[in-house]
Design goal:
2 domains; Beta-lactamase; 25% helix; nine-stranded mixed β-barrel; seven-stranded mixed beta sheet; alpha+beta; 12 helices; Lipocalin
C-alpha cells in the first residue's frame, strides 16, 4: 500500500531482504542502553520497511534536525551550479561585493565556494560565535583567517550559513522554498517544514531545519539516486549527477578532527562519509540520515543524545551489529509472528517516564512547603513543590525576575506542557529515589531539543538544595546550577 501523501510504498522488512527479528533486536538494544530515540525509519529499494515514533512524537511532528540542514544547503548549491549561477572554484566574496570593504583578510578573500562546501574554510571555528552581531555573513568575512582555505578540515558552521545566504540572495527565496520549487514539493516533502532565521531573517543554514523524519528520508533518496527523482518523476535530474556524486564522496580527510569512528571516514559537500561505503546527513543529538548505496538502504533517526556522550556512536554500533550483517539480496520468507511482534513494539514506543516509587516520608518533607532560596543572580525565590492528592503528579513553582514559573510533571507517566519563559513544548516526569531526594526530568521537544533536570535534596530539618542541570543548546542558564533552600 502507499502511505498518505508519500512517494514511498510500505512493505514488510522480509519482502525487501531484512528479517523483522533484526529490527526487533535493534530496538531492544536501543532500549537496553537507554538511548533516547524519537523516531526510526528504515527504507530499502525505495520502500518503507519500518517506521516507528516514540510518543509523543508521531509521523507529522516537526523535529529540530540541526546540522542535517547543511546537506540541504549542499543540494541548493548543486542546483545553482547546474543552472550556471554558481561556480565552485570562484571566491565567495565575489558573490557578496557589499561586504568587500577592502579590509578583508587576504586568506578569507581567497576562500572559494568549494572550500566552504568541504569545511576547508579559512576559519577554525564558527565566525558568528566569535564576532557577535546581527549579521552572521558579515562576521564570516570580517574574522581574520586562522588557516589557508582549501586545507585541513575544520567544522565551521558560519561557512554553511554563508552558502545558504548565497542561495537565498541568488534565488530570492528561502532555502526550503527554493528546494520545494525545484523538487521537494513533488516528492511530498512537508508543507509545514521550515528553517529558523538569523537576526537578519536569513535561514539558519547550519542548524535550523524543522522537518518530519519522513522529509529527511525523501531528501536522502535524491542523493541515493544520484541527484535524480524516481517514480513518475524518474526522468528528472534535479541536481547534476557529477555534483551529487562528488557531494557524497570523500573530498577531505577528517581522521584527526572526527570524534567518533563514523566522523573519521571523510567529508564531502556537507555530507559525512561513514563505514561500509556509506555517507550521512548528520545533526547534533542523534539526527541522522544513514545512506548505504551498496545495499539501497536508508535509515533516518531523530533523537536526543545530548546527555549521553557516546549516544550516536552507540546507535551506529548497534546498527552495525544487529542489522547491517543481515541484508539479503533476495526477499525472505514471510515471518508473520515476528512482523506482528515488530508492529506491537512499534505501537508501544514512547519516551519513558522516570520510575515511580511511592515514598510518603519524602512527600511529607517537601509537599506544599514554601522554601526560601538563597539570594541568586536570577532572583529565584519562594520555591514550592506541590503533589497531587492522588499521587499521579505535581508542580514546581517559584518566582523570578522573569516572572512566575510553573512546571507540571507526572509520576509514572509523562505530563506535557509549555516550558515557562522559553515557550517550548515539553514532557516531564518525576520520581522519589530515596527518602530525601526527588528528581524531575523534563524533555524539551520543540525548536530546541534537550533535557532539564531538577533534583530536590531535602534534609530532615527542612532545608536542602535544588540541583538543576540542562542539556540544551541555548538558553536555560538558570537551570544549570545549585540553589540553597531554607525553610
Amino acid at each position: 500500500m502507499t502511505s498518505d501523501n508519500c512517494v514511498f510504498n510500505k512493505c514488510t522488512p522480509e519482502e525487501e531482504g531484512l528479517s523483522s527479528r533484526r529490527i526487533i533486536d535493534f530496538l531492544a538494544e536501543i532500549d537496553k542502553y537507554n538511548i533516547n530515540l524519537h523516531s526510526l525509519l528504515m527504507f530499502r529499494h525505495n520502500k518503507i520497511i519500518f517506521e516507528g515514533y516514540w510518543k509523543p512524537f508521531n509521523r507529522n511532528t516537526l523535529h529540530r534536525m540541526f546540522s542535517v540542514v547543511k546537506s540541504f544547503v549542499s543540494a541548493g548549491i548543486g542546483v545553482l551550479v547546474g543552472k550556471g549561477d554558481i561556480e565552485l572554484d570562484r571566491p565567495v566574496i565575489d558573490y557578496f561585493p557589499e561586504y568587500d570593504c577592502g579590509e578583508i583578510d587576504e586568506l578569507v578573500r581567497q576562500a572559494t565556494v568549494r572550500d566552504l562546501l568541504t569545511m576547508r574554510s579559512p576559519h577554525e571555528k564558527t565566525a558568528f560565535k566569535q564576532i557577535l552581531g546581527n549579521d552572521y555573513v558579515k562576521s564570516f568575512f570580517s574574522l581574520k583567517a586562522k588557516k589557508v582555505p582549501g586545507t585541513a578540515f575544520s567544522y565551521d558552521t558560519s561557512a554553511t550559513h554563508t552558502l545558504c545566504a548565497l542561495i537565498e540572495k541568488i534565488t530570492g527565496n528561502s532555502l526550503i522554498d527554493f528546494l520545494r520549487k525545484e523538487f521537494l514539493a513533488d516528492l511530498g516533502f512537508s508543507k509545514d517544514a521550515y528553517v529558523l532565521k538569523d537576526p537578519l531573517g536569513r535561514s539558519l543554514g547550519g542548524s535550523g531545519l524543522m522537518a518530519r523524519p519522513l522529509d529527511i528520508g525523501i531528501f536522502a533518496h535524491v542523493f541515493l539516486n544520484g541527484g535524480a527523482l524516481w517514480g513518475k518523476y524518474s526522468d528528472r535530474q534535479v541536481i547534476p549527477k557529477d555534483y551529487a556524486e562528488a557531494a557524497v564522496s570523500k573530498q577531505v580527510d577528517t581522521f584527526v578532527k572526527g570524534e567518533i569512528k563514523e566522523e573519521k571516514q571523510g567529508y564531502g559537500f556537507k555530507f559525512w562519509r561513514i563505514s561500509n561505503n556509506g555517507y550521512m546527513c548528520y545533526g547534533i543529538g542523534g539526527q541522522l540520515a544513514v545512506i548505504l548505496p551498496d545495499f539501497d538502504f536508508v535509515m533516518v533517526v531523530t533523537a536526543d543524545t545530548l546527555e549521553m556522550k557516546n549516544g550516536v556512536e552507540r546507535i551506529f554500533e548497534i546498527f552495525w551489529e544487529c542489522v547491517f550483517p543481515y541484508f539479503s539480496k533476495k526477499s525472505l520468507p514471510n515471518d508473520e509472528k515476528s512482523f506482528y511482534r515488530l508492529n506491537e513494539i512499534s505501537n508501544s514506543l514512547c519516551i519513558k517516564p522516570l520510575v515511580f516509587s511511592d515514598n510518603e516520608i519524602m512527600k511529607e518533607n517537601i509537599a506544599d512547603r514554601i522554601f526560601n532560596v538563597e539570594e541568586n543572580e536570577f532572583g529565584i525565590k519562594d520555591l514550592m513543590v506541590s503533589i497531587d492528592n492522588d499521587n499521579r503528579g505535581g508542580k514546581i513553582s517559584f518566582k523570578s525576575r522573569k516572572g512566575k514559573f510553573e512546571l507540571l510533571f507526572g509520576f509514572g507517566r509523562q505530563v506535557s506542557g509549555v516550558f515557562p519563559f522559553y515557550k517550548y513544548k515539553y514532557i516531564a516526569s518525576g520520581a522519589f529515589i530515596s527518602a530525601n531526594v526527588l528528581i524531575i526530568k523534563c524533555h524539551i521537544i520543540d525548536e530546541e531539543i534537550g533535557t532539564v533536570y531538577f533534583q530536590f535534596d531535602i534534609t530532615q530539618n527542612g532545608g536542602g538544595v535544588l540541583l538543576t542541570k540542562k542539556n540544551v543548546g541555548l538558553g536555560f542558564d538558570e537551570f544549570n546550577r545549585i540553589y540553597i533552600l531554607k525553610q
